[in-house]
Amino acid sequence: MAQPATSAALPDDPVPLALATAPVPEYGTGSLADLLPTLAAGQGVPGLTAAIPELTPADRNCVFLVDGLGWEQIRDHPDEAPYLFSLLSGSRGGTGRPITVGFPATTAASLASVGTGLAPGRHGLPGYTVRNPETGELMNQLRWKPHTDPQRWQPHPTVFHLADRAGVHTAQVSSPVFEHTPLTRIALSGGTFHGRLGGEERMDLAAQQLAEGDRSLVYTYYSEVDGMGHRYGVDSDAWRGQLMYVDRLAQRLAEQLPPRAALYITADHGMIDIPFDEESRIDFDEDWELRAGVALLGGEGRARHVYAVPGAEADVLAVWSEVLGDRFWVASRAEAIAAGWFGPEVDERVVGRIGDVVAAACDDVVITASEREPHESAMNGMHGSMTPAEQLVPLLEVRS
User: Fold this and answer.
1) What is the DSSP secondary-structure string of 265-297?
2) Beta strand 272-273 with 216-222: parallel, antiparallel or unpaired?
3) Alpha carbon 357 to chain centroid distance?
4) How far apart, in whole angstroms, are the C-alpha atoms of residue 82 and residue 193?
5) What is the pLDDT of residues 147-168, one digit of tens each?
6) Model's pTM, two decimal places?
7) Are 192 and 219 in contact (CB under 8 A)?
8) Helices and strands in the chain, H and E counts
9) What's the number of CA atoms in the CB half-sphere (13 Å) around residue 342?
């Protein structure tokens, strides 16, 4: 008598995503970490390599980083961002292509990649929250809590420091609240920090600083596109209003460029809206299967670091792969490192910060934690993974 088919053989069972299908960032040729080394190498700063071959050197370089403004968001909103949209065809040195931010596509990791010129596996900020191997605690790398010695956590010099030592006039123009933060210290310091509250003031001062030296490297930043996306979503009026404002800021800065200058407008990640339903939001705190054997849940909703109870690593990987594997790329720590998710190299001090299991969303889905992370779990817009909406950012260029 024929035996009934097991559940594993049912034709409609979900098929786990192959790790080889994950679109690994373009580390070394077209990632956010390659931008400042390319610009500074073109200014004659020793020890750096021009990794993005499409970019032409300039004596004066300015990077305007808009938090949360992905390539797809500009492409899909030509009416709200006519100036930025007009520059898309010339992105990445006239190729009309975006660059990638790195994994995870999150602010702490990306800003560290920008400032150090290193991928997350080298600079050591591989997520929103990660385990500190020395204490066993989760560390929030954006808010720097609990406090950890910044120089021990990220010991590599920033590109700004290297440029300043080489005689390049170097400056950062941002909100004054960021001047003394540990993240600024380890990722964006070197030269002079100038704090300005208003966006227009930042653009004007960035242009002035760019003109201060025969060789200049200036960085300026705006955060509220990301803020409105998290609160209200990237399809909201509030978000569209911020996009319109940033469009005007970018044009204001571009129109003030001094001679021999290049302006690059980019971002630290894109964003997608996640529906508020059980299919799209999987609550870790209410899912006994996903919690089994897990000591700490790190990362964020679309890029999770999962730290297992000692001895339970294989079981946690098996369960997460079975439950989530058709919607997330689910990898062991060794698999994620070998696949190059965090860059071609991972420093020894960084290995233990990466989860025993790493889960990166492929679909429009997140793993929330309603009790552990009530604020993050309530957000509309999310980011972190390797999908084009999150991973691709512009490298818009204006030259004087």
Assistant:
1) EE-S---EE--SSTTTEEEGGG-HHHHTTEEEE
2) unpaired
3) 20
4) 31
5) 999 999 999 999 999 999 999 9
6) 0.95
7) no
8) 18, 18
9) 31
